[in-house]
Amino acid sequence: MENQAELTRMMQTYGTQLLRLCTLYLKDRMLAEDAVQETFVRAWRADFRQECSEKTFLTRIAINICKNYLRTPWHTRRASAELLDQLTTQIPDVDDTLLRAVLSLSQAHRAVILLYYYQGFSVNEISEILSIPSATVSTRLFRARKKLRLMLKEWYYDEP
Q1: What's residue 84's pLDDT?
Q2: Which residues, 6 or more positions from 145, have their beta carbon under 8 angstroms from its beta carbon?
Q3: CB contact set of 154 (below 8 Å; sequence gap of 6+)
């Protein structure tokens, strides 16, 4: 990156989106904030070669950082999200059934759903971000939608 003004612009433009993505990916707001901060530090040090969009570049970095966080021994030994959910009080009048269903998917399926529906990336952009073939992205999207449809069949109805 050329200068600090460019970094500031990128943080203002993409910071909130990356924080949302990392929070959904890691299921932990504080850890997500650390991941976003590390994303911008790595972007600052990296040489952006204009091979893809800035958003794709930053998202790829953020997802790789999230994956690394999930692999750490600390993360594998901490309390499960389900246990923590039982300890927290429910916020009244908030229906988060869809979010809970998405978060319950496997990491591979959750990643493509989050990138496609929550971040608005195309199949080809997701392919670049995750470094997998476009066909694999399409297959994962299909399977994730199928799982979500089964999980949420009571939550919505199909019109005849």
Answers
A1: 47
A2: 113
A3: none
